[in-house]
Amino acid sequence: RTSQSHIDAATPMAEEEAASTSPGKDELRRLIVAAGEELRAARAGGDSGAGADVLARLLDLKQRYEALTGEEFRTKSVKRSRKEAAASGAAPSAAQPNPNPPKRAKQAKVDLGRFTPAADPMQLPPPASSFPPWAPRDFFRFEVLHTSRKPGSRARVGRIHTPHGVIETPCFVPVGTNGALKAVDERQGREAGTQLMFCNTYHLLVHPGPRVVAGAGGLHRFMNHEGPIITDSGGFQVFSLGETTEDDVAEMKRRKVREGNSASLLATGERGAVFRSYHDGTTIELTPESSVATQKQLASDIIIPLDELPPHGMSRERLHASVRLSHRWMARSLRAHLAEPRQQAMYGVVHGGTDEELRRESAEYLATLPFDGFAIGGSLGADRAEMLQLLRFLVPLLPADKPNHLLGIADPESSAAVVPLGI
User: What pLDDT was estimated at residue 78?
Assistant: First the structure.
């Protein structure tokens, strides 16, 4: 009984002494990170004996951490702990990335002198007589199966025949930005009725790059996608990176580059545009010719010429100059495409904002060129009502024997509302 009393009396003292020497949460975190570095070094050196001892110590430290904090040690605190380990003199492991990587080197200056505006921003694009007349393609064909007989309706049912299958129109075209639909695999997309998929040239150009996609056998094999694919020129994303001016209204001013994002539009001019990649900071030129060349490597079924993205509400003078610039760029894109079609169709993009006179000018000019179809781009108005009013005016101006594609509209209500207008 005396002996037991002695032990009981001594226990609180022992616990107090142990507590005074037990490491706290921060110290345990530091010790765990240091042990992890030591374990990796031991394994890299092939020392299995030392590795086993370090592993046992690491597991013991983690158990003590969980007993102290009530939570499992997680790697989200590793960065902070590694800094503490480095401050205490622990050597970093070669197998572990540097917790404080050097900042990316400043980009070399780019010769932006090549991207100057045209001497005359209202310069007319090349005439239709400078292009060969449009001729039917053996790899691309559009047929109208039925036209609505309802008064005031321009709805039509058609088929677009492409090298990778038939597209029954009208249809909804989901966007697989970087070559994949978000949260939907190929089987689910096919079961949902996807007939035509849209992919963004800008994002694929930045990463993984057209050479990687071409090396995989083109977008279809890269994505393991069997159906038709349409790609854009990259212009929409590039011009959304530009800084706003007093002439730009709310729509453009809402396009703010997130803090820490290095993507930016560096210059634009008659030659094209130059921008900085958000992926690795490299400088990339986007011209009508390079956009087409990229889409040739992507090997989509339908491609889009380079055009400029003017915001809604800009001055009519700037909007008119933008339409003319887009026409000149699209003419260059078309020439590059016709030089090597590669079983791809090209759609011209009608611009002009909500200005009916400019929309008419754009539709009438593009209709004279040998495009295989037409897309309706640019700003479509401030709301759905303004968009529908514009389409009632514009669609009848487009060639009835060719397909049309309404860009950037995805909500179910608008998608249903535009079908009676002929989309």
Answer: 45
Is residue 327 within 8 A of residue 359, CB to CB? The reply is no
Element (H, E) at 215: helix 210-215
- Predicted confidence at residue 387, as pLDDT, reads 97
DSSP 110-169: P-GGGSPPPSSTTPPPPPGGGSPPP---SS-EEEEEEE--STT---EEEEEEETTEEEEE
By DSSP bridging, strand 156-162 and strand 141-147 are antiparallel
> Which residues are CB-neighbours of 423 under 8 A, at least 6 positions away?
170, 376, 391, 395, 404, 406
Question: Which amino acid is located at 16 in the chain?
Answer: E
- Omega before residue 92 within 30° of 0, cis: no
pLDDT of 82 reads 53
Contacts of 286 (CB under 8 A, 6+ apart): 202, 205, 234, 235, 238, 272, 273, 274, 275, 306
Pairing of strands 264-268, 273-276: antiparallel
**Cross-strand partners of 270:** none
| Tokens read off for 103 | 């900042």
d(CA 422, CA 373): 14
**Distance in Å from the first CA to the final CA of the chain:** 96
Helix-helix angle 25-44:78-87, to 10 degrees: 80
Query: What is each CA distance from 382 to 31, 251, 315, 378, in whole angstroms?
Result: 59, 9, 15, 12
Q: Give residue 6's pLDDT.
A: 40
Percentage helix, strand, coil, to 5, in the chain? 45, 15, 45
What confidence score (pLDDT) does residue 108 get?
Answer: 57
- Helix ranges (DSSP H) in 286-355: 288-298, 316-338
pLDDT averaged per 10 residues in sequence order, the chain, 423 residues? 40 44 84 87 71 84 88 63 55 49 56 80 97 96 97 97 98 93 90 95 95 96 95 88 56 43 79 92 94 98 95 91 97 98 98 97 98 97 96 98 96 96 97
Contact 145, 348 (CB under 8 A): no
Beta bridge partners of 175: 198
Query: What distances in angstroms separate CA 100 from CA 12, 249, 282, 320, 406, one per listed residue?
Result: 44, 41, 21, 50, 47
Burial of 100 by CB count in 10 Å (0-12 exposed, 13-18 middle, 19+ buried)?
exposed
